[in-house]
Amino acid sequence: GEIIWNSDECKEAIKAMGTASQLSPNFREAAAFMHFFAGRQISDANPEGAINEYIKSIQVCSDLAVVWNNMGLCYQRIERYEDAHNCLSGALNLNPNDLFHCLNYSSICRWLERYDEGIQYGKQAVSLYDPGIHDQALGAKAYFQLYINQHLKGEAEGMNPIILKEAHDAIKNAYALNPNNEVYNTDLQMMNELQRSEEHTSELQSL
């Protein structure tokens, strides 16, 4: 059919192409873009179908971090965590200083109990957060993924008080950046109580 250049879909396609080109100068193959955009359009409703489109895109151009990233998120959505990890690792290798890629990689690590990696890239995401450029909610997400990995590691290590203190600091920062998020609020209250309990136990032990 006829292309309507002022349509929302066309504007979105042009925006996506500009973003992809910025992320990867090699994003010049028309077929790769066609499959990338097709995958983006259906990723929420049909992640398996989107994965097939992203695979086709990578078959044309394998050095597109944005495609690896999006494919990893689709695998994560259908709970294929190892596949998600492989894809998100691929995106990170291609573009290691991208906040989104660090954030998403930190997120997948928690599901595979790779807490040290999750903490490493959670800290990297936090360091890349620039309040002059990024929305505060994005910074909050970075701190939250750092918190999640620290909290789970602390629990796995027998309620390690040092790591849990770091987790408490991270969730406080996440809440400070996005105080309207109910999950952040709930987890902050939980960590506040946990810290009070830990401090009380320490006081008793010192008597």
List keywords for this structure.
elongated; 207 residues
Amount of beta strand: under 5%
Compressed to H and E, one letter per element, the order equals: HHHHHHHHHH
Q: What gyration radius follows from the Cα positions, in whole Å?
A: 20 Å
- Described by the principal axes of the CA atoms, the overall outline is elongated
Derived from helix and strand composition plus strand pairing, the structural class reads: mainly alpha
Number of helices: 10
Taking pLDDT < 50 over at least 5 consecutive residues as the criterion, the unreliable ranges are: 1-5
Helix content: over 70%
Cα-to-Cα separation, first versus last residue: 81 Å
The pLDDT mean sits at 87
Largest sheet: none
Query: Number of DSSP strands?
Result: 0
Description:
The protein is mainly alpha-helical and about 210 residues long. It is built from ten helices and no strands. It has helices at about 10-25, 30-40, 45-60, 65-75, 80-95, 100-110, 115-130, 135-155, 160-175, 180-205. The chain is elongated, with a radius of gyration of 20 Å.
Q: In brief, what are we looking at here?
A:
The chain is an all-alpha fold. The protein has helices spanning 8-23, 30-42, 47-60, 65-77, 81-94, 99-111, 115-128, 136-156, 161-177, 182-206.
List the helices and strands and how they pair.
Layout: H1 8-23, H2 30-42, H3 47-60, H4 65-77, H5 81-94, H6 99-111, H7 115-128, H8 136-156, H9 161-177, H10 182-206
